[in-house]
Amino acid sequence: MSVHPSFEKPQPALLNAAPIVLRFKGLHPGDLGKFRMHDRRAGGNLAHVDRATSNRNRIEFGAPDWVSDLRLEIAQAQRSNLDQELKALRAKHRMKEASAREQRGHCDPWRHSKEGPLREGILTVNKAWFGGTGIGAWDEARVEAFLAAALDFLKLHFPGGQLRFVGSHSDEEAFHLHFVVAIWHARQTANRGRQVTLQPSANPLIANYEHAQDLAGAHFARIGLERGERRAEARREASAAGQEPPAPRRHVPPSEWRKAEIRRGKERAAALEERAEVAAQSVIEGARSAASTALRKSRKRAIKEARRRKDAAERAAMRAEARRRVEEEAARKWVRRGAEAALACSGEQRRLGEVQGQATMMHHRLWLDERRREKVVEELNRAEEEKAAVASEIESGRGQVRALDVEKTALLETLKERQTLAKAAQAEVSAVGLGLKMLGTGELRWQPAKDKRPAGLVYGPSGAPANPLDDSILEKLGPGMSILELIARQIHDQIVNFQRDIRIQQAQDAVFLSAERKRLGLVPDARLGAIARSGGPGLW
Questions:
Q1: Mean pLDDT of 430-456
Q2: From CA 87, how far away is CA 80, in angstroms rounded?
Q3: What pTM, to 2 d.p., does this model score?
Q4: Are the C-beta atoms of residues 170 and 140 closer than 8 Å to each other?
Q5: Which is nearest to 16 in space by CA: 279, 221, 274?
Q6: Which of 290, 300, 4 is nearest to 130 (CA)?
Q7: How far apart are the first and last CA of the chain?
Q8: How many Å apart are CA 475 and CA 169, to the nearest integer?
Q9: What region does 131 belong to: left with phi over 0, alpha with psi -120 to 50, or beta?
């Protein structure tokens, strides 16, 4: 299918006209099991499937055991072709060639090619013609009309048992039909007799896909659909006109598109992680630089302010010292004047005057010292306040640095978590790669449950008895063990199914040979009876 939005984001729309989509793809008989598994949603990549609506899928045409019937027809054609060729060669007395041909045994009844002898087809139309994305948005009348027209088209153009299976899928974004055709073609020659082979080109639609598109466009016009673009005709006209033809369009399978999307998603995630790491480093470096700058500026401001206040305090002290000297000089003058006045008095009065003068000068000195002490205390208090303000600014700068350190630590923890997740993912990828390699060589395989032994992975060289996984292997495969168990179990189930089909085929061949021996009057062969019974009645 083409690239569509997800089921969670439908696009309601209803086109009045849209091109019919008819595609064919080669199919080998050995891949019929995979085709049936996909049709039944029993395995494979189901990310594009709405599992809640898978019960709406239907088998529109074909018997439930059509795969077994087709394989039986192939086996019968192999035997018939060999018998006819041997009969023709012996009729022409070419005994040596007949003997060599008989030794080669049965051959596949088709011409080998990369596409295979069967054809798988799909019929659908743009989801907007049905009404939108998913079954909840579809117009039921249009779905029924498309289904009826599609079945008529297939039965008309693949008659005579060519059409083997038609299944409708309603659990994807657009309603569509998957179908399988097997076209037998008989040819009579003198050297090989009547040879019946699978030849897809015997049907005109497969022999000429452009003709098939024309027929599909004409048939589905009755329900409002039209033929797709005539790209092949446009390329021919461009080549005839000497122009460069347009590049042919290639259908991209959903699995290939999803792998490409996953790869692009991983690349984007890796790029985002790299950018995040670079951004984190840039933020850390910026924070470190900003913190260093802020601390340096704070220190410069504090030193500059302390020097300014120190200079102011020194100037205030010098002014106080000058005032003190002036006041002392004034006191000395006053004392001298008192002493001179006392000289005129008697000796007692002079002594009294001197004592009083000294006492007065002493009181004045005490008063000056008290004033100076108060001023010094005031200057010290102002200096303490300025010191506390500077300390507050320094502590604020340290708080900013601590906050930046916390942010840096958080960024480093986030980076470590992402690195841990990346390492875990890498370990899981490595473990899955090693496990796939061991599964490919047969060293690692799935062992089903038996008696009291639980099901699980076992280890052992190819062909040797298997043992439970030891600690060394568990340590290597531990991160990817869940994925490896799922893959190993699916491989085991596929092998069991394949062996069951082989046993069925062998049992059918034994029944056929027993019947032929009985018809020819030969003695029954016990070995053929044992082989026929080994198929088991539940597998027929």
A1: 75
A2: 10
A3: 0.47
A4: no
A5: 221
A6: 4
A7: 35
A8: 43
A9: left
Cα–Cα dist 396/403, whole Å: 11
Q: pLDDT tens digits for 202-254?
A: 999 998 888 888 898 899 989 988 886 776 555 665 566 666 666 666 555 66
> DSSP letter string over 347-405?
HHHHHHHHHHHHHHHHHHHHHHHHHHHHHHHHHHHHHHHHHHHHHHHHHHHHHHHHHHH
Coil, strand or helix at 183? coil
Which residue type sits at 125?
Answer: V
How far CA 314 is from CA of 158, 300, 320, 389, in Å, comes to 115, 21, 10, 20
Give the Cα separation of 354 and 333 in Å (integer). Answer: 14
158: helix, strand or coil: coil
Question: Tokens 């630089």 label which residue?
Answer: 289
**Cα separation, 187 vs 194, whole angstroms:** 6
Are 19 and 228 in contact by the 8 Å Cβ rule? The answer is: yes
Angle at 40 between CA 129 and CA 77, to 5 degrees: 105
> Which ranges of 63-131 would DSSP assign to H, the alpha helix?
66-91, 95-104, 127-130
All residues at 6 or more sequence positions from 231 whose CB lies less than 8 Å from its CB, including other chains: 246, 248, 249
Q: Between helices 481-520 and 66-91, what is the axis angle to 10°?
A: 50
- At residue 255, what is the residue type? S
Cα 125 to the center of its chain, rounded Å: 28
Structure tokens at 284: 């850390």
Q: How far apart are CA 366 and CA 380, in angstroms?
A: 21
Residue 162's SS3 state is coil
What's the topology of domain 18-251?
Answer: BirA Bifunctional Protein; domain 2 (3.30.930)
How many Å apart are CA 70 and CA 180, to the nearest integer?
11
Tens-place pLDDT, residues 29-65: 999 988 888 888 877 677 778 888 888 889 999 988 9
Domain-wise residue ranges, the chain: 18-251, 262-431, 444-539
Helix (H, G, I), strand (E, B) or coil at 222: helix
Identify the burial level of 217 via C-beta atoms within 10 angstroms of its C-beta, where 0-12 means exposed, 13-18 middle and 19 or more buried.
Answer: middle
The set of residues, in sequence order, having a beta carbon less than 8 Å from that of 487 and lying 6+ positions away, is 435, 436, 439
Do the Cβ atoms of 154 and 170 come closer than 8 Å? no
CA distance 147 to 49: 20
- Provide, for the chain, the percentages of residues in helix, strand and coil under a 3-state DSSP scheme, each rounded to the nearest 5: 65, 10, 20
How many CB atoms are closer than 10 A to CB 125?
Answer: 25
Alpha-carbon Rg for the chain, nearest whole angstrom, is 50
Distance CA 443, CA 461 (A): 5
CB of 35 closer than 8 Å to CB of 27:
yes
pLDDT, tens digit (0-9, with 9 covering 90-100), for 247-280 = 666 555 666 666 776 777 778 777 777 777 777 7
